[in-house]
Design a protein that fits this description.
This protein is of the alpha+beta class. It has two domains: 301 residues, Beta-lactamase (3-Layer(aba) Sandwich); 88 residues, D-Ala-D-Ala carboxypeptidase, C-terminal domain (Peptidoglycan synthesis regulatory factor (PBP3), Domain 2). Helices cover 33% and strands 22% of the residues. The C terminus is likely disordered.
Length: 460
C-alpha cells in the first residue's frame, strides 16, 4: 500500500495524457511524405510541440516491436514507485536460462552481466534501454514479477490499454520473437510520446553512454561501459544526424530492424518510429536501413516542414448583409478560433480550400461574437478543421425598418391565415344560427292560433 499514492498519480498522469491525445481543431497537420524512399515497412513521425503526426507509412499495419518492447517495461518500472538508484538486484543463472533455448541467437544483445553480479534497478534500465540487454530485461522481469515474467508483462499490457494502444499485445519483456507479440507504428509513437512525460525516462533513454558506479570495483570498467545502440548521435559514424538522440533500437530475424528516436533542432521537436526495416541488402550483407530511414525522415522534416498559420481570429472571412440594420447594414465575419498546421514548404498553402456556410436571412440586432456560420478547411478531400464564423462587430436594429418589414409579412403570415379562417368559420356559424332562428320563428308563428274578431251579438 505504500506505493498507492504514486499509483494514483500515475493514473492521473495517464488520464491527462490520453485526454491530451484527443483531436483538436486548434493545430493540425496533413501527412506529407519525404522525397526519398523509406525502406521500413511502417513509420510514423510526430511533431511533439503540436502532438501531431506529420508523416506516416502503414501506420496501422501489424508489426513486431522487437526490443522497443523494453520501452514499455521501463515505463511500468519507473512508475512503480521504487527507488531505482537504491534498489539492487543480483543476477542468478536461472534468470538467463531461457535465453539459451532461443531459436535466433543473433537477435540477442548482451551487456556483460553474469550470474552473481549485483546492479541497481537504474543500472539495469540503462543497460536495457541503451544496449537492449537481454540479461537486464530478464533480471528486471523476475524482480518486478516476483520470479514470474508474465506478471510484469500483464502490467505492460494494462498500461498499453490505458494509453489506447488498441493493436498492441506484449508477451515478453525482452522483445524477442513471439508470433503473438505485435504492435503498430501508431501505437508505438503513442507509447513513446507518453514515455517522454515519465520522470527519468528521457534522461536514461537518451543518454549516449553509461557506466555503473560499481563497475571499477567489479573489474568491469570496460565491459560495463555501455554506449547507446542508436549511433546517429555520434559525429564519427556514417549515420550521424544532428539533433537526434536515443531512444531505442531493435532487431529481429523474423521482424526486421526497428528504431525509436527523438530529434530536436531550432526549437522544433519530433519523435520517430520505424518498424520492420530489412536486415540485409541485395547481396545478403547486414544493412542498417532503419538508421538510414531515420536520417532521411528527420532531415526531410527539418528542411521542409514549417509551422503555418492558416487562419487567425483577426482574419476577415466575409461581409454579410444584415436586414433591418440601424446605420451600417453589413457585419464582418471572423473565425471563432485560429487554425495552424505543419506544412511542407514544397506545396502551396493556398491549396487549402475554404468552404464557407452562412446562416440565411441574417437579421438585426447582431451582437459581436454571435455565431453566423462556419468555415471548413479541406485539402485533397480531407477535412482539416471546421470552425465557427462569428460577428466581428455589433449591428443595432432600426425600429422603423423592423416594423415596416413586418407589414408585407403580415398579409402572408400564418397568423393572418388563421385569423381569416376563424372569422370565416364564425361568420358561417353566425349565418347558420340566424337561419335556424328565422326558421324556428316562422314555424312558431304559423302554429299560433288565429284570434276571432267580431263586433258583438245582435240584440232584438
Amino acid at each position: 500500500m505504500k506505493h498507492l499514492p504514486l499509483r494514483i498519480i500515475s493514473f492521473l498522469v495517464t488520464l491527462t495524457f490520453c485526454i491530451g491525445l484527443l483531436p483538436t481543431d486548434h493545430a493540425k497537420a496533413l501527412s506529407f511524405a519525404p522525397t526519398e524512399p523509406v525502406a521500413s515497412e511502417a513509420a510514423v513521425l510526430l511533431n511533439m510541440d503540436l502532438n501531431t503526426i506529420v508523416y506516416e507509412k502503414n501506420a496501422d499495419m501489424k508489426e513486431m516491436p522487437a526490443t522497443l518492447t523494453q520501452v514499455m517495461a521501463a515505463i511500468v518500472i519507473l512508475e512503480s514507485g521504487i527507488n531505482i538508484s537504491g534498489e539492487t538486484i543480483t543476477a542468478e543463472q536461472s534468470m538467463f536460462d531461457p535465453l539459451s533455448d532461443y531459436d535466433y541467437p543473433t537477435d540477442l544483445r548482451y551487456a556483460g552481466i553474469n550470474a552473481g553480479d549485483t546492479l541497481t534497478v537504474e543500472d539495469l534500465l540503462y543497460a536495457m534501454l541503451l544496449t537492449s540487454s537481454c540479461e537486464a530485461a530478464m533480471m528486471l522481469s523476475h524482480y518486478f514479477g516476483n520470479g514470474d515474467e508474465s506478471v510484469l508483462v500483464e502490467k505492460m499490457n494494462e498500461k498499453a490499454a490505458a494509453l489506447g494502444m488498441q493493436n498492441t499485445r506484449f508477451t515478453n519483456v525482452t522483445g524477442l520473437y513471439s508470433a503473438r507479440q505485435v504492435t503498430t507504428a501508431r501505437d508505438m509513437i503513442r507509447m513513446l510520446y507518453y514515455a517522454m512525460s515519465v520522470p527519468q525516462f528521457e534522461k536514461i533513454a537518451c543518454a549516449t553512454n553509461y557506466t555503473p558506479a560499481n563497475a571499477e570495483t567489479k573489474g568491469k570498467s570496460e565491459t560495463w561501459a555501455w554506449s547507446h545502440s542508436n549511433t546517429m548521435y555520434d559525429p564519427d559514424t556514417k549515420y550521424y544526424c544532428p539533433g537526434v538522440r536515443g531512444i531505442k533500437t531493435g532487431n529481429l530475424q523474423e521482424g526486421g530492424r526497428a528504431i525509436a528516436c527523438k530529434a530536436s533542432r531550432d526549437g522544433n521537436n519530433y519523435l520517430l518510429v520505424c518498424l520492420n526495416a530489412p536486415m540485409y541488402d541485395e547481396n545478403g550483407s547486414n544493412h542498417f536501413y532503419h538508421l538510414e530511414d531515420a536520417r532521411t525522415i528527420v532531415n526531410w522534416a527539418f528542411s521542409h516542414l514549417t509551422y503555418e498559420k492558416v487562419l487567425t481570429t483577426n482574419t476577415e472571412i466575409d461581409e454579410v448583409e444584415v436586414a433591418n440594420a440601424d446605420g451600417s447594414n453589413y457585419v464582418i465575419l471572423k473565425p471563432a478560433e485560429g487554425y495552424s498546421c505543419i506544412w511542407c514548404n514544397t506545396m502551396d498553402i493556398n491549396q487549402v480550400q475554404r468552404i464557407i456556410t452562412i446562416d440565411e436571412n441574417v437579421q438585426a440586432p447582431i451582437k459581436q461574437g454571435q455565431k453566423l456560420g462556419t468555415i471548413q478547411l479541406r485539402h485533397s478531400g480531407e477535412i482539416l478543421a471546421q470552425i465557427d464564423l462569428i460577428a466581428g462587430n455589433s449591428v443595432e436594429r432600426s425600429f422603423w425598418k423592423y416594423n415596416l418589414s413586418l407589414i408585407p409579412g403580415f398579409f402572408t403570415s400564418q397568423f393572418l391565415k388563421i385569423a381569416l379562417l376563424s372569422a370565416l368559420i364564425l361568420t358561417l356559424l353566425y349565418v347558420i344560427v340566424c337561419i335556424v332562428f328565422f326558421v324556428l320563428y316562422k314555424k312558431q308563428k304559423q302554429q299560433r292560433p288565429r284570434r276571432v274578431s267580431g263586433r258583438g251579438s245582435d240584440r232584438r
